[in-house]
Design a protein that fits this description.
The structure is a single chain. The protein is an alpha+beta fold. Helix content is about 15%, strand content about 35%. The chain has 4 helices and 14 strands. The longest helix has 14 residues.
């Protein structure tokens, strides 16, 4: 399993004042916790943290840290960022084990151009990320599905995804993830609704149409 080394230091103080002092020194506060370890307050360089994210796994990367002389594997459980600069302000580091599953969000992408889209349909990707459960060393950088052969009306579900051994998406197998819809039909329904809402010849407005089921 590939890991990225991240230098951390144990800190004793906490609170807004010490946190501001840390940031003035080019560091940010962090918390280390997880099964089998005591919670520890840490500090680290936000630049080093962002550099560690420069892998295909990005924030799902496994980090190797030394806390008080003991090595641990950790993952970023939560990260607070500045609302304007988007720079890290605080990070939670969760201890993980190579054999113990973790829950992460993995980007979901499609490849290819559906034949149904070429015929006038519309591709709809339901999720940008999928909830995945697997061990740290098997986390995929991305889950991709080929949609080139999808026609209008076709649907792909979680069961259709090609996942690695020991990797599971935490949705029911029949949960829809991609579909190709008939755009023309949607447009016709919208035009019908508009026509029904147009004022009649006597100058009164027609009652609003009942929305079509989606």
């Amino acid at each position: 399993m590939e890991t990225q080394t991240l230098e951390v230091e144990v800190r004793q103080s906490s609170g807004k004042g010490p946190a501001r002092q840390l940031r003035a020194q080019g560091k940010i506060p962090a918390v280390f916790y997880g099964p089998g370890v005591d919670t520890q307050k840490l500090s680290l360089s936000p630049k080093d943290l962002l550099k560690a994210f420069e892998t295909p796994l990005k924030k799902n990367v496994v980090l190797s840290v030394d806390v008080g002389g003991t090595g641990h594997l950790v993952m970023v459980k939560d990260i607070a960022v500045h609302p304007v600069t988007r720079q890290p302000l605080h990070v939670d580091l969760y201890r993980v084990d190579e054999s113990r599953p973790v829950d992460v969000q993995v980007p979901f992408k499609t490849t290819g151009r559906p034949v149904g889209v070429q015929a006038g349909g519309q591709l709809q990707v339901v999720f940008r990320d999928l909830p995945v459960r697997t061990t740290p060393g098997k986390i995929p950088a991305v889950i991709e599905v080929e949609v080139g052969e999808m026609n209008i009306g076709d649907i792909l579900t979680v069961a259709d995804l090609a996942l690695g051994e020991g990797v599971s998406v935490q949705f029911k197998p029949d949960r829809r993830v991609v579909l190709v819809t008939e755009t023309k039909k949607v447009i016709e329904e919208e035009e019908t609704t508009t026509a029904e809402a147009t004022p009649d010849a006597a100058g009164g407005a027609a009652p609003p149409a009942t929305p079509a089921a989606t």
